[in-house]
């Protein structure tokens, strides 16, 4: 099992996406999020309190989950895991992620107040939990003998998601309305992104992008994207009010956006100036 996150709507489905132009970005204040002594720090989800979840690689290459809450940095390690990664966090502080057990099998989890709850659909040979909404519904991917599928977990019940014609389905995020951001792979191994709403998949595409990876949707149906241009450069955009707003951390290049909360605060990664390793970034709209 490998993660597919990149460096991870009723209104939207009614809009002709290809006719939308990139809009001028609002002012954002960015801060680098980096665990002291880590080789790399990657952040994904952000809740309305501005708390960010992600993971870091320590000095010897081991992966650990991490939470940034203001100036407090907390390592999150599953006690039975050889590695831990966190991907999203909801309003009450519950986190979705996965760990590798002693047999090197990926096990999805939700985590809150020091307690891990395993999330593994029946028959799965490996599971990764990516998104969690404020009701505690969790989405992610699992593998079985027939391939890679998406799932929704709700109060002990699992629902399988498979994009028609896809060879792999990877749900990334779920909001409080049950709208789900899904990445999927076609028969020629090309990645796509769609929104799943009321049983219907609608493909998403950032204008001018050669690869669009939607990662997160908030309760207002704003969507966080990472995308590639024709030269292979990474960009990050936020879909809001019918426009794609490109946002970039001024401390470097190649900003990808993975998370967005209801206050339009964002989280993701960027390449710091003079570095070859991507690091975490948090952006807050300037007043």
List the helices and strands and how they pair.
Layout (H helix, E strand, L loop, with lengths): L21 E2 L4 E6 L6 E7 L5 E6 L5 E7 L2 E5 L6 E7 L5 E6 L5 E7 L2 E5 L6 E7 L5 E7 L2 E8 L2 E5 L6 E7 L5 E6 L5 E7 L2 E5 L6 E7 L5 E6 L5 E7 L2 E5 L4 E9 L5 E7 L6 E7 L2
Parallel strand pairs: 1-22
Antiparallel strand pairs: 2-25, 3-4, 4-5, 5-6, 7-8, 8-9, 9-10, 11-12, 12-13, 13-14, 15-16, 16-17, 17-18, 19-20, 20-21, 21-22, 23-24, 24-25
List the main descriptive attributes of the protein structure presented here.
287 residues, Neuraminidase, five-stranded mixed sheet, four-stranded antiparallel sheet, 55% strand, globular
Would you kindly provide a written description of the structure presented here, covering whatever features stand out?
The structure is a single chain. Helix content is 0%, strand content 55%. With 287 residues, the protein is mainly beta. The protein has a single domain, classed as Neuraminidase, CATH 2.120.10. It has a 5-stranded mixed beta sheet with strand order 1-22-21-20-19, with no helix packed on it. Strands 2-25-24-23 form a 4-stranded antiparallel beta sheet, with no helix packed on it. A hairpin with a 5-residue loop joins strand 16 (180-185) and strand 17. Residues 6-21 have low confidence and may be disordered.
